[in-house]
Amino acid sequence: MTDLPDSSAADVALRLENAVGAQERFQIMYSVLRDRICTLVYPPGTQLGEEALAEEFGVSRSPLRKALQILEADGLLQSQQGIGTLVTDVDLDALAQVYQLRLELNELTGRLSPATVDDALLQEFDAMNRRAAVLRAHPDRHEFARLNIDFFHVFQLLSENQPLRDHSEKLFYQTCRIWLTLIPEAALEREVKVFCGEIEEITTAVNSDDLEAAALIRRAHLSMGFKRLRKHRKVDAIA
Amino acid sequence: MTDLPDSSAADVALRLENAVGAQERFQIMYSVLRDRICTLVYPPGTQLGEEALAEEFGVSRSPLRKALQILEADGLLQSQQGIGTLVTDVDLDALAQVYQLRLELNELTGRLSPATVDDALLQEFDAMNRRAAVLRAHPDRHEFARLNIDFFHVFQLLSENQPLRDHSEKLFYQTCRIWLTLIPEAALEREVKVFCGEIEEITTAVNSDDLEAAALIRRAHLSMGFKRLRKHRKVDAIA
DNA sequence: GTGATTTCATTTGTATACAACTAAACATGA
DNA sequence: TCATGTTTAGTTGTATACAAATGAAATCAC
Question: Quick one: which residue's CA is nearest to C21's C1'?
Answer without folding.
Answer: A82
